[in-house]
Amino acid sequence: MRVHALLPRYPVPALNVPLTTGGRFVLGATPGEKFDLIVFYRGLHCPACVKYLLELERLAPEFISRGVQVIAVSTDHEERGKQMVEKVHAHATKFAYGLSLKAARQWGLYISTSRGKTSIGIEEPALFSEPGVFLVKPDGTLYYGAVQTMPFARPPFQDLLGAIDFVVAKDYPARGEYTGDV
Q1: Average confidence (pLDDT) per 10 residues, the chain, 182 residues
Q2: How far is the C-alpha of 28 from the C-alpha of 83, rounded, in Å?
Q3: β-pair type (68-73, 132-136)
Q4: Number of Cβ atoms within 10 Å of the Cβ of 137
Q5: What secondary structure letter does DSSP report for 155?
């Protein structure tokens, strides 16, 4: 199956997932003033995700102060989602769970199969999505997107903060939108 990339300046797929705190996150229902930062992570089994999400939680107040709503999403079930919240001591970052593999694929995320227990002794789910980071404008269009086939080399959140400051100050348009012949 071919995975299609999302295009900047075009609408992103729907996202409607349960929150670990109760209720649901429905993309577009109450968007951030400037952006929604959606961080798709592999799941509780992933030690690289724990490190990455600790950094997200540390910087979440900086994003929020810039009008950016912050949410981390995985294909994990509720219990594993709540365990990740505890692991990263999340208070500022919203956590959602139960992303369907179909929805993950619609977002252009890669899907992996289980290889058993990870280095931290937690079993990988049979199928799960690989990481992705997206900035979605309040109008529901993609501003920025990055997907990985592996848990390594993800976009640094500190760099993303600097980029947000720049793009807001300069009213810099989303790039990569061209779909014509080349």
Answers
A1: 78 98 97 98 96 98 98 98 98 98 97 91 93 98 96 96 97 93 92
A2: 27
A3: unpaired
A4: 19
A5: P
Q: Which residue has the tokens 């390594």?
A: 152
| Residue-wise DSSP of 67-113 | TEEEEEE-S--HHHHHHHHHHTT-SSSEEE----HHHHHHTT--EEE
By C-alpha distance, which of 88, 72, 81 is closest to 37?
72
CB 68 within 8 A of CB 36: yes
Write down the domain spans for the chain: 16-150
What DSSP element (H or E) covers 127? strand 127-129
Element (DSSP H or E) covering residue 148: none
- Going by their DSSP bridges, the two strands 132-136 and 24-26 should be labelled as unpaired
> How many CB atoms neighbour CB 147 within 10 A?
19
Which residue in the block uniquely carries the two structure tokens 């694929």? Answer: 105
Query: Does domain 16-150 bear CATH number 3.40.30.10?
Result: yes
